[in-house]
Amino acid sequence: MSLFVTLGRSAALALLLATTPLLAAVEPNDAQRQVAAEVAESLRYGHYADVSLDDDWSRRAYSRYLDILDGQRAYLLDRDVAAFGDLATGMDEALLDGDLTRPFALYQRYHERAEARFEWLLDRLDEGVDFAFDSDKRLELEREDAPWAGREAALDELWMKRLKNAALTLAISDQDAEQVEANLRQRYEGQLSRLRQTNEEDVFGLFMAAVTGSIDPHSEYLSPRQGESFDIQMRLSLEGIGALLQADGEYVKVSSLVPGGPAERAGALQPADRIVGVGQEGEEIVNVVGMRLDDVVDMIRGPKGSVVRLDVVPAQAVDMTRSKVIEITRDTVDLEDQAAQGEVIEIERDDGTHRLGVIKIPTFYVDFDAWQAGEEDYRSTTRDVAKEVERLQAEGVEGIVLDLRNNGGGALQEANSLIGLFIDRGPTVQVRDARGRISLYGDTESGTLYDGPLAVLVNRLSASASEIFAGAIQDYGRGLVVGTDTFGKGTVQTLNELSHGEIKLTRAKFYRISGESTQHRGVEPDIRFPSLIDPELIGESSLDNALEWDTVREVQYRTYGEPRQYLETLRSRHRERADQHPNFHYLEQQSALASRLREQHTSVSLNREQRQREVEAQEAEQLALENERRRALGLEPLEEWVDARDEEEGDEEPVDRAQILEAAQILLDYTQLESTWHYAKGS
């Protein structure tokens, strides 16, 4: 014990390291060697794409492995990468032969560098951090394309900037020097502790993520632990907040919200938000920057009725200092929370009051257990929508808007049967498998439930089955599609058991009846709304190695109308209303501003005064736009832009609602134009 006191922390640690490694080398086991070969066979013979595990693939997989280990080029040196250059043409042999020695050795090199780096950071804290923050230096935020550092000194400089930035971020959040140091020490000690707990299953998972992710973003190996979590998620019985999360560098980002889940109901969490801290009710919040995704997920999960506290940086925030703490009560998501719901909207015009129906469809669901048991009155999207359509028709609506915003998909059979409510028999979607065989799905029942004016409202989070439905309505000329480009997920995955774990494999692709894929591009709306969701952050096109858009042969189908002939007039009328509507004006201006700020915000100042000036200037622009909107709506202006999301809950006409109302206005225009056209033709 006296040795530590005499030598000091750094010297004592160095002596200890010289005799006893902090972590023994992690080695692959026989089960992992076996499953590596099984994954190789699955990819070669089961994946939709023509997968060749050759030198070209090896280079892609090796590059992705490096990105997974050190995507910000902050740990490894160029000589480390050069020492494992054989993997650039050897990943295929490692996978096919189950010889994981070299991939594991590369991880071990990264591990040693990362462990030493966290110790270096803790040493700097021991020496004391300069809290003057008067430097004129800046920290680059995105380093994916940066060259590998040639010397440790270059990484020392980078990490000193990172340390200063982390300290400045906390200091601007009104923490004193003692609190800043304590929080940073907790962060780095926590990251170091988690790093030292790495086991062979963790390393194998990283290697497999590189293997599958080099082919497409939806194929992935699931360890036994991950497979259990996936099964829970698919059963929708998970007690948590109802948010799907993904890793985004050192941060955890919200990719989407489960319809009807606690997070969506609370309204405080949005896609692309970053979670930087997690705490339980009555306890301190733990910083989760740099923490593994599955560990963060475990912290957020909890029993129904308990409260989790999240420290969140909103997607539109221009600086990581602008976080806020929100509370969400954990709950389960059941079928009732996701049920379709309808309402009547009244629109006043010179010729009187018009009634339009709106049906919100959160997901494509079906009670599989009741259906398989043969129960006649089982719940499903199609059945619930049918009831709402009949109710709205009885109330005399002139048209119906189907709201598929944030609908991430669900049961394909429900998308297929839902289309059947609005067409009289015909194909709905084509599915092409890896061998090029095309299966055609369609509505076989004669007659339609509703043949009146129809519009489909979509956004960037409308995916998969939602895109199939919107695409079919558009192709049939059955109605208008309004909103933004959809997500672009046009692939089908299956889950197969392996000798150790499971593999989720992309096996097929969706195509519209027009022959166009929904993959990558999604469905383009007939009339476009502005969006605050950046397509470079959310959507299929934002994912690495996403399969490309392509086409197959068009199938024969009849059209029900020609909405496109009215688009020029409809767009002109929409443009006129949008220019005059405070919420639409705000959306367009805020979207343009957010895009510009993201382009400009590639680095941050390490000078406190300069940093505050930059943040205040950016937030002043955002606040001015928000208050311009609020004044136009007769609402009280805000003093802080960060309060905008909370205040919108009390807004009599929030931005989200404005899109529904405008979709109804567009549908009414379409209804009147079509009636005039039919009258002019004498039909």
The gist of it:
The chain is of the alpha+beta class and 683 residues long.
Describe this structure as you would to a colleague.
Residues 598-620 are annotated as: Disordered. It comes from Halomonas gemina. It is a single chain. The chain has 683 residues and is α+β, with helices and mostly antiparallel strands. The protein has four domains: 2-213, no CATH class; 237-329, PDZ domain (Pdz3 Domain, Roll), CATH 2.30.42.10; 347-561, 2-enoyl-CoA Hydratase, Chain A, domain 1, CATH 3.90.226.10; 563-683, no CATH class. It is 44% helix and 17% strand. It is built from 22 helices and 19 strands. Strands 3, 4, 5, 6, 7 and 8 form a six-stranded antiparallel beta sheet that branches. It has a six-stranded mixed beta sheet with strand order 9-10-11-14-15-18, with helices on both faces. Helix 3 crosses helix 6, helix 7 (101-127) packs antiparallel against helix 9 (177-196) and helix 16 runs parallel beside helix 17 (465-475). The longest helix has 27 residues, at 101-127. The radius of gyration is 27 Å and the shape is globular. The relative contact order is 0.09. Residues 1-22 and 231-238 have low confidence and may be disordered.
